Amino acid sequence: MDFFLLLISTGLVIGASYGLIAMGFALVYKATGVVNFAHGELVMLTAYIAFSLTQIFGLSFIPLMLVTIPISMVLGLTLERIFIRPMLGEPVFSIVMVTIGLAVILRGVTIMIWGPDPHNLTAGVTRDVIRVFGIPFYAAQLMSIAALAICTTLGWAFLRFSRIGISMRAVASHETAALLVGISVSRTHAMAWALSSGLAAVAGVLFAMNFKLAPDLWFQGLKSFPAVILGGLDSILGAAFAGVIIGLIENLSQGYIGQGLREISGFIVIIIVLMVRPYGLFGDRDIERV
């Protein structure tokens, strides 16, 4: 029983990381219709920025996030303005290739600045074990789960009630119609990149605190992609829930079946689900009149 609870606790933590990263993917896709393949690299880069802030200023977790999130949002706005804004109106494939090129650049820049060696990021958080309903957690693990719950709630409220969120939904639904009613598509795209980068900062810092900070952190973006597909590319909340599902499936399959299944179980799940629901568990069915 203890082994099962340990697998559940670790699966929830990994799933929370997947969910936070997947929300960033889905947010950009919902507003722009483009998959940002540099999102994993943004997660990595913002985590390294947070690490440098702790080394220079000795910031604890809350002040660290209050500083890192705005920096990451400015970074997202800058990247969107330099690399993505000039591509508006170009084929989607061309924009996707730009994000892939941006990903390679960010990986190289990160290694140039911080080197290839792994680092520890604690941000002053205790390493004591806390039991919740008999399940053991570290404080940083509980913070990851809480962060996913908070970001999911704020994301729902933002898209449902805020003016910017409604604009994003309008642009995602019909870009031309949104332009006709006075919505700035370019500004909406920029805001989506900024908010996605803010989510990347939360995900990157918490993942580094729970596991490690290393240049291969970008790979978590690829590992989170099954959650995006499972939840639905256009469903931000669905991506969050699907991240937890993928994390639990990966950990349980590794614990009870074998190590190799952890790396492929998420992709097996999305293949099965997409054969039944091509738009994901929470995505919107795309209907066209002919």
UniProtKB/TrEMBL annotation:
It is a multi-pass membrane protein. It is found in: Cell membrane. One of its GO terms (molecular function) is transmembrane transporter activity. InterPro entries: ABC_transp_permease (IPR001851), BCAA_transport_permease (IPR052157). One of its GO terms (biological process) is amino acid transport. The chain crosses the membrane at residues 42-71, 92-115, 135-159, 190-209, 229-249, 261-280. It holds the Pfam family BPD_transp_2. The keyword Transport applies. One of its GO terms (cellular component) is plasma membrane. It comes from the Bacteria. Its main location: membrane. Keywords: Amino-acid transport, Cell membrane, Membrane, Transmembrane, Transmembrane helix, Transport. Belongs to the binding-protein-dependent transport system permease family. LivHM subfamily. This is Amino acid/amide ABC transporter membrane protein 1, HAAT family. It comes from Salinihabitans flavidus.
